[in-house]
Amino acid sequence: MKITIQSVERPDSTEPETLIRWLCEVFGLLGVDEESAIEEQILTELINAAYRNKGISSSDIRVKPSIARSTVIYHLNRLINTGLIVKRGRQYHLRATDISRSIEEIEYDLNRELMKILDAARAFDSTMLSKRLGKGRRVKIE
């Protein structure tokens, strides 16, 4: 998973379409071309399926007929990289039963990964401190 999170002001609107667009923007999925709306459409369909406790296949996703299935799969993979959706067998699902739980799951993953990084940073700092002390430098402890 490779997550990009952008700071984007939350819209005042509570309309689902507006909030889905905002989520796509927060996760760096919106571009300037027409294809960027595909992720919004896909996410909308996956959210609707989640509320019915279902997943959907790439061929069941309804986008413009002129858009190739390979393009849909490309955009599904981008959504997988955000952590919002997962693939189980041939079906794609919202990561959890709803958007808020999906975000909580992403938060959990991020915290776990950040703790790994923090542990490595602490080990690094400890090693660097030991090397400094080993060269005759004194550290004043108050």
Account of the protein in words:
The chain is mainly alpha-helical and 142 residues long. It has a domain at 16-95: Winged helix-like DNA-binding domain superfamily/Winged helix DNA-binding domain (Arc Repressor Mutant, subunit A, Orthogonal Bundle), CATH 1.10.10. It contains 4 helices and 2 strands. Strands 1-2 form a two-stranded antiparallel sheet. α1 packs across α2 (36-51) and α2 packs across α3. The protein is elongated.
Q: Count of helical segments?
A: 4
The separation of the N and C termini measures 43 Å
What sort of overall outline do the alpha carbons produce when their principal axes are compared?
elongated
Structural class: mainly alpha
Strand order of the largest sheet: 1-2
Helix content: 40-55%
CATH architecture of the domain at 16-95: Orthogonal Bundle
The string of secondary-structure elements, in order, is HHHEEH
Radius of gyration: 21 Å
CATH superfamily of the domain at 16-95: Winged helix-like DNA-binding domain superfamily/Winged helix DNA-binding domain
Q: Which class of the domain at 16-95 in CATH terms?
A: Mainly Alpha
Question: Average pLDDT value?
Answer: 87
Specify the biggest β-sheet.
2 strands, antiparallel
Number of strand elements: 2
- Beta content comes to 5-15%
In short:
With 142 residues, the chain is mainly α. 54% of the residues lie in helices and 6% in strands.
